[in-house]
Amino acid sequence: MNKQVTTQGPWTTTKKRYRSNLWSPRRFDLRRPDTTVVNAASYLFFLSCVLLFCTSAYASDISLHGFMQGNYSAGVAASNPQGGDFKLAEERLQLKLDATADPFHLFIKADGWYDHIGQKWGSELREGYIDYTAGKWDARLGRQVITWGVGDLVFINDVFPKDYEAFFSGRPLEYLKKGVDGAKIGLYPGFASFELVAIPLFTPNHFPDSQRFWMFDPLSGNGPGITNRETVKPAATIENTEIALRAYRDIAGFDASLYYYRGFFRQPSMLPDNMTMPTKLTLSYPKLSVYGASLQGKALDGVLSLEAGHYDSRQDRNGTDPMVPNSQTRFLLCYQRQLWEDFTVSFQYYAAYMHDYRPYMKNLPSGFPQERHLHDLVSIRLTQFLMHQTLRLSWFSFWGPSDSDYLLNPEIKYNFSDHVWAALGGMVFGGDKSWSQFGQLDKNDNVYLQVRYEF
Amino acid sequence: MKKTLIIVFAIAVSAALCGISLAVTPDEVMKKSQAAFLYPGKDFKARVMMKLISKGGQERVREMTMLRKNYGESGGDQKYFIYFFQPADVKDMTFMVYKYPGRDADRWLFVPAISMVRRIAAKDKHSSFVGSDFTYEDVSGRSLAEDTHGIIKEEKTGGKDSYVVKSTPKAGDMDYSYKMSWIDKSTFLPLKEEYYDKRGELYKVFTAIEVKDIKGFPTITKRSMKNLQSGHLTEVSYSRADYGIGIDDSLFSERFLKQPPKKWTE
Fold it and tell me: Exposed e or buried b for every residue in B189-199, given b needs 16+ CB within 10 A?
């Protein structure tokens, strides 16, 4: 038996990466999804929409905004796996086009950039959709960012795609969220409000690039590792269309929501072709359903939030398949309070409870790191504004009591004028175990700079 | 008979005197002022231009549309909806407040960059409104019962007959120890306010620069707040101010926070 696999096999990887909602450890290279074709099609579609809108005599209102941004991040703990010290070095232009011709509204947000590390130009349609608004309902069609739930960088019912590399390498927070390609319908009958989302084209999460980030990868260990990896995304079929529902209303002064999702894990599971001597890995996205609820309101002189969700792992309901994550119940408690002028503190406690723990233990091959029954995470955020809210000092940190790992993110942001701001911050990771969520990122500590001219 | 008449006359006179004295009680003046300043009309809309001017003269601009709707009597609940045009980094942000007399308001903020609606924990008394010299309380008002009011004198301010009212917070958690207000006797709008710090020194001055009649409601369309200690100044001007425009209750909802209707924000 291959020693690397025996001691740190892919099975643990599969379980381990599933344990946290923020981001779970990855021990394998994830190829970027091939979105070129979709992108090209989207561009053409939206370009034609823009032309249509711009030439339309009905377009009553068109506006163009955006920014130019420099974003740099330098590793301070170690050079990158592929060499070089910069995790990020790029200049970027974003254009946002808004056009309204009642009852329609068009919005396009597109980025173009030059990446100094890869030495190449890139572009992306961040968002691009058309809204239709009626009295008691509305619809949004196209690429759109959807944010659900009440967590701060902790996601239970926000089942939509994230870009963790963006967050860990010091991009502005908005780059943590990725758009989904789908349709959203809003219904407002009065007694409650509803959001219905259908996503025919699957978008996985984006995890740190193995060339720029050190991560725990048992299969590349001391040798070249298994380079033969294939990613299989859910095919764009009717039955694979992801469905997400949210119902919300006020209950006794609290904002209450119920959630339902039927789709897929956005973090892949790994299937080796051979359990003992794997030569090829297939990465696929297991089926998932989520049932959840949240409450947010004023309490104890601050804002109190509660959220919970049951993750039904539909391909491993009895917890015996070591390749597929077990079902879980996740819970979040959050309290935010202003202590003095322009100073706010918020505290979060998050826990994920694994179901069918006994079958999991029984099927876990011996010698593998063993996931805990309950994985928890504590976060603190401190924000102080100064100088008429033009200077912002902030601190955000995660600490995992169950794995003794942490993430620290201090940042200072200053608005030089109404158009120019800059932020300087740091990302520090660590922990006792080299395979834990933040512990494996230990060598990726970085200092980042964001400078933006907004117009 | 004569005695009865005298008694009736005495009662009438004292009643009249009471009536007169009631009309000029400081609490009554402040109540009328609150109604004229913060509650006129069933609803209200204005394009608000806020200039934040530093001691060195650097200007920053906050431009927004503010919509307000009253629920119940003057001094009762209100809802606010604010849409930001400027600066660029907050463009398209929306902000919603449910204000209740006597307790902290509910506040929601929509951040378009990540399409997120969040409640925010901020205290009316100690929070600067968008970094200006105005606090939330200065913008949406303060419960009258939180202060004791006394009419110190009556004098002319800017050619207007005014009551000069001293308001002292009952609780000691305020940044100022007392406030002097010059209330116009005819419109009951505050023409000037002076805030004194804990040492009794003047540190903040509110000035009504321009008052216009809009649909029969005298409205302060230009105002300023100057911090004498920091030298920072905030100037606010209203344009396209209007009352009774029929704002629907549904505007004050998560739906429209996320998709602010042009009809109301423009």
Answer: bbbbbbbbeee
Q: Which residue ranges make up each domain of chain A?
A: 3-454
Name A382's bridge partners. Answer: A345, A395
Contact A341 B126 (CB under 8 A): yes
The type of residue at A159 is V
Q: How far from A214 is each of A223, A280, A339, A370, A381, CA to CA, in Å?
A: 15, 22, 39, 22, 26
- Partners of A346 on chain B (C-beta within 8 Å) are 121
pLDDT in the model for residue B5: 56
How many angstroms away from the CA of A336 is the closest CA of chain B?
6
Burial state string for A411-443 with b = 16 or more CB within 10 A and e = fewer than 16: bebebeebebbebebbbbbbbebebbbbbbbbb
Identify the sign of the CA torsion A404, A321, A158, A30: positive
Give the helix/strand (H/E) hosting A230: strand A229-232
Sign of CA dihedral A297, A298, A302, A304: negative
Q: Hey, are the CB atoms on A454 and B126 less than 8 Å from each other? A: no
* Residue B214 placed within a domain: yes
How many other C-beta atoms lie within 10 A of the C-beta of residue A170? 25
Cβ-based neighbours of A41, under 8 Å, separated by 6 or more? none
Token pair recorded at residue A313: 């792992």
CA distance A119 to chain B (A): 28
pLDDT, position B20: 44
Whole-number pLDDT of residue A34: 42
Nearest chain B residue to A298, by CA: B106
Q: In chain B, which residues have pLDDT < 50?
A: 15-22
CATH number at residue B248: 2.50.20.10
Domain count, chain B: 1
Contact (CB, 8 A) for B96 and B79: yes
Distance CA A161, CA A158 (A): 8
| pTM score, whole prediction | 0.89
Give the pLDDT of residue A407: 98
In order along chain A (455 residues), what is the average pLDDT of each group of 10 residues?
31 36 39 46 59 57 95 94 92 96 95 96 97 97 98 97 97 97 97 98 93 76 65 94 98 97 94 78 95 97 97 95 92 96 96 96 79 95 96 98 96 97 98 88 96 97
User: Which CATH code of 2.40.50.100, 2.40.160.10, 1.10.3720.10, 2.40.128.590 fits the domain covering A3-454?
Assistant: 2.40.160.10
- Looking at residue A177, the DSSP 8-state letter turns out to be B
**Chain B residues closer than 8 Å to A67 by CB:** 88
Examine residue B87 and say whether the peptide bond preceding it is cis (omega within 30 degrees of 0): yes
CB contact, 8 Å: B130 with chain A?
Answer: yes
Q: Is residue B69 part of a domain?
A: yes
Q: Write out the residue range of the structural domain in which residue B227 sits.
A: 24-265
Chain-chain contact of B123 with A338 (C-beta, under 8 angstroms): yes
Residue B73 CB neighbours (<10 A): 10
